[in-house]
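Weekly modeling sync, notes
Attendees: S.R. (lead), two postdocs, one rotation student

Agenda item 3: backlog of single-chain predictions. S.R. asked that every request posted to the team notebook include the full sequence so nobody has to chase files. The rotation student volunteered to paste the first one in as an example of the format we agreed on. Action items at the bottom.

Example entry:
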Amino acid sequence: MNDFLRHSDDAHGTPPASQTPTPGDFVREATAADLDAIGRVHAAAMLASLRAAHVAAHEVPLPAGVEAMVAAPVIAAGWEQAVVSPPSPAHRVLVAVGEGGEVVGLIGVAPSPDGAATTNAAGETSQADDDAAADADAASGRGMEITALGVAPERQRRGHGSRLLAAASEQARAQGADVLLVWAVRGDESLAGFLRGAGLKRTESFRRLPVGQGVIEDCWAAVL
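Predicted structure, as returned to the notebook:
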């Protein structure tokens, strides 16, 4: 896909001219000192996606009990090992930094699990076969997966998402990957628009998550 990582005007991507990013905005490797901020940013981004997905699927709000579970301290603790002691050099956590030095976004990159098979609505196994997935090259060890991508809602439309995705693609290429995958909840049209604008395509693979009454994650992919 030659237009992979082209700029997007979506909420997660490159901003309109009136919201041009400042020179202080950049992406760097995450450190242990970033964990609290990572927890806050990821929790806020995750809740926004899950709320949109749940309403789109069921026309009712995300249950309060689910919202309470997506707490910043819990999310931060879940990131500690990935940041402090990653299982391999291919596992990376990057953060987007705003002009004031604060963490405003994050992205995780890891080798894609072998065979990215999922289950469809009929209970059958479905393999990503979109042309962007290049016949699921991840199964041959050449795929990298974005394990998380989020920008603080109040800091969107400033290019942070695009910079994070570009940095992740560079990391994937450095590991010899030629396919980049990301799972995104169905119903979050802001995120879907960003991924589409960046050049990824939604594959036929999806998986169901037991969140509230249930939401679906679709697998998006691009050839690097």
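Discussion: group reviewed the output briefly. Strands lie at 26-29, 92-97, 103-111, 118-119, 125-126, 143-151, 179-185, 201-209, 215-223.
Action items: rotation student to repeat for the remaining queue; S.R. to check formatting next week.
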